[in-house]
Amino acid sequence: AQSVAQPEDQVNVAEGNPLTVKCTYSVSGNPYLFWYVQYPNRGLQFLLKYITGDNLVKGSYGFEAEFNKSQTSFHLKKPSALVSDSALYFCAVTYTGGFKTIFGAGTRLFVKA
Amino acid sequence: DGGITQSPKYLFRKEGQNVTLSCEQNLNHDAMYWYRQDPGQGLRLIYYSQIVNDFQKGDIAEGYSVSREKKESFPLTVTSAQKNPTAFYLCASTLTSGRAGEQFFGPGTRLTVL
Fold this sequence. Notes:
Chain A is an all-beta fold. Chain A is 0% helix and 53% strand. Chain A has strands at 3-5, 10-14, 19-21, 24-26, 31-38, 44-50, 56-58, 64-68, 73-78, 87-95, 102-103, 107-112. In chain B, strands 2, 4, 5, 6, 9, 10 and 11 form a seven-stranded mixed sheet that branches. A four-stranded antiparallel sheet of chain B has the order 1-3-8-7, with no helix packed on it. Classes of the chains: A mainly beta, B mainly beta.
């Protein structure tokens, strides 16, 4: 079965420290991977995606993610966290032969001043 | 401004009532989606439409219905057959139905059953 896992319900980081939000996937064929962010009572906003090419993808607001095919992972990273980064983050994947997007359960990021 | 609008922002429904959630986009996107969001469960796909006058059931379509009479509009009706409709509902669209495109989301409608 196709699936996306975000193993941490919550990540706590101090402002200025690097942050990582983890994502692993299990899909058939080549995955297309996405990260979205959701602020309270709002829709999701697209951050970045991996389709092909360079494994390190850079996106909005200083975020980046690294595609690791052997570990089937697509972790979201930022070198220096801001309090305003506090939000709910979703990893998502589409896959060969599939039209639907599968979303992870989400990871809540808290950045403390 | 281009984007997706959803209305209303908050909706209250009595047991046994049908309610319709509006979703409109002016992005000229072909594909549109409805998701349901519950705490700790991520997003679950209710219905999707790749082109006008065509739509398919998602993973949790029971108790819901949709129409796609215009490219810009994809309303969702929550029927009385939906046993647990209280949730946050999100509409989204992509330029094409291809799997490489990111989705653009509306601001959501929070439905509460009284």
